[in-house]
Amino acid sequence: MNFLRSFNAVCMPFAKETKKCISISIFNQTACYSIKIQHRRPIKVYDANAESEIQNMEEDGTSKKPIKRFKDEILGVVELNKEKLWNRNKSKIESEMNVEGLRTDETDSDDEKGETILGSTFVRLGDSDTRFERMIFKVQSKKQRHKANIIMLEGKRLIQDAISAGVVPTEIYFSRKSMIENLVMPAGLIKLYKMPYNKMKKWSQLDTPPGVVAFCQMPKTMVAKQNFQLPLTVICDNVREPGNLGTILRTVAGVGCNSVILTKGCTDMWDPKVLRSAAGAHFHIPVESGLTWDEICKKLDKNTRIFIAEHKEEAEMSSETMIPIVPYFSVKYSNLQDICIIIGGETEGISDEAVNLARYLDGLKINIPLNNNIDSLNVGAAISTILFEIKRQFIINNDLNCNEGNDVKSVK
Predict the structure, then answer these.
(1) Does 394 reside within a domain?
(2) Least CB-packed of 165, 275, 309, 392 within 10 Å?
(3) What SS3 state is found at 339?
(4) Is residue 11 part of a domain?
(5) How far is residue 214 from each of residues 168, 243, 257, 307, measured CA to CA in Å?
(6) Total number of domains constituting the chain
C-alpha cells in the first residue's frame, strides 16, 4: 500500500504534464488548421435555402436541370481558376527566361522554322533526357576523357576551329539555331540536339555559357600548316595550372613556333579549361604531351640550343651544376639554327632533369629584369615576353630559315 502511494506521488505529476502537453499540441494543430481555413478562398458561395430547394427537387424527381446547372457553374469556376493560375505561372516563367538571356520570341521562332538546319535534322531534348549529362560525365576528369577518347568544345569559335582543322564533332548540343547557323560543317555527319538553355547552364563551368557545346573524338598530334614558322620549340616542365598551359599554347601559336612539348608532370592538354584558354591553339600547332626527358632528348636536334626561363637574377647552385644567367634580350637568337625554351610551372618550377639537359648541351638561363621588388612574372606573361623578343629579332634580320648559325657563346 505504501508502495502504491509512493508510485502515485512520483508518477502523477509526470502524467499531468504529459496530458497538458498533448492538449497544447492538439490546440496548436486546431488553431493552425483554423487559420489556414480562414485564408482559403471559396469556389462558390450559396445560401441554405437554395440548397434545400435543389434537394427537394431531386427527391421529387420533377427536374434535374437545377442540379446539373449548379454542377456546371462549379466546374466553370474551377476551370477559370486553373486558367488564371496557368497564365500567372506562364508570365513568371517568361520573365525568368528573359533574365537568363534567352528571349521567348527566339524560342518560339525556332519552333516555327522546323526541325532541319544546315542540311541535317536535329532532335529536341526534353527535361527528362539524359544524353547531354552522360556526355558531360565522360569528360569530367583526365582518366574518363582518355578512357572514352572524347573531348568537349564549348563555344562557336572553338568548334569552328576544330572543324577547319579536320576534327569533326560527333555530337553538337545547342539552345538556339542562331548558335550553329553560321558553322561550316559537313551535312549529315554530326548529330544535332536542341536543348533548353537553363539545363545547359546547369552543367557548364562558365557563368555565362555560350549556348553551344560539341563533343569530338580525341585527336592525335596535330600537323598544322603554318605560313610563318620559327625554328623554336617550347618545352613546358610541370605546368599544372590549366589556365597557364592554355595561355602558353595560345602564345606559342601566335608567335609561330615549331612545336610544343609537355612533360609528364603537366596538366592534361584536353582539359576544358585549357581548351578555352588556348582559344583553338590546339588545332594550329603540333603539341606532344606526356613525354619523359629521355624521349625529349631523342627528339631534339644535336644543334639545338637550350634556354631555361629563370626568374632569379643570380645563380644559387654549386660550381658543378652552375649555368650562366643572362637577360633574355641579350641573346642573338636569329644566329641560331634551332632553339628550345624550357619554362616551368609556378608551383614546381624547373625540374632537375631540365637543368641537367641544359648543362649537358651547354645551355643558358635567361631572365626578365624586374623593378619595384617584384620577384617574378606569371608564366604566361614571361613566355610571351621571351617569345616575342625572339620573333622580333628574326623579323629584323629577315632570316626566318636560319641558314647561318653562330655559337651562342658569342653572347656577352
Answers:
(1) yes
(2) 392
(3) strand
(4) no
(5) 9, 20, 28, 38
(6) 2
Among candidate residues 167, 342, 132, the one with its CA nearest the CA of residue 270: 167
The domain spanning residue 173 has which CATH number?
A: 3.30.1330.30
Nearest to 154, CA basis, from 249, 269, 275, 267? 275
User: How distant, in Å, are the alpha carbons of 228, 250, 393, 407 from that of 333?
Assistant: 16, 21, 7, 10
Q: How far apart are CA 272 and CA 284, in angstroms?
A: 17
Last residue of a domain, one of 217, 249, 265: 217
Count how many Cα atoms sit within 13 Å of the Cα of residue 164 in the half-sphere of its side chain. Answer: 15
- Domain holding 296, by residue range, is 232-410
Tell me the three state secondary structure of residue 340: strand
Residue in this structure with the C-alpha cell 549529315, named with its chain if needed = 188
DSSP character at residue 12 = H
Q: Where are the beta strands (DSSP E) in 12-165?
A: 116-117, 120-124, 150-154
CA angle 254, 256, 260 (to 5 degrees): 95
Closest CA to 159 of 134, 132, 192, 196: 192
**What are 268-315's pLDDT values in tens digits?**
999 999 999 999 899 988 999 999 999 999 888 888 999 999 876 554
- Residue 9 burial (CB count, 10 A): 9
* 8 Å CB contact between 122 and 115: yes
**Phi, psi angles (nearest 5°) of residue 3:** -65, -45
Taking a C-beta distance cutoff of 8 angstroms, is the pair 363, 308 a contact? yes
d(CA 236, CA 382): 13
At residue 401, does pLDDT exceed 50?
no
State pLDDT tens for residues 236-261. 999 999 999 999 999 999 999 999 99
Tell me the range of 4-8, 59-63, 126-130 where mean pLDDT is highest. 126-130
Side by side, the strands of the sheet bearing 287-291 are: 287-291, 259-263, 232-237, 338-344, 304-309, 364-367, 325-327
**What string of H, E and C letters represents the secondary structure of 282-328?**
HHCCCEEEEECHHHHHHHCCCCEEEEEECCCCCCCCCCCCCCCEEEH
User: What is the C-alpha to C-alpha distance for residues 211 and 198, in angstroms, rounded to an integer?
Assistant: 9
**Quick count: other Cβ atoms within 10 Å of Cβ 135?**
20
Question: CATH no. for residue 388?
Answer: 3.40.1280.10
Cα 364 to Cα 355: distance, rounded to the nearest angstrom: 10
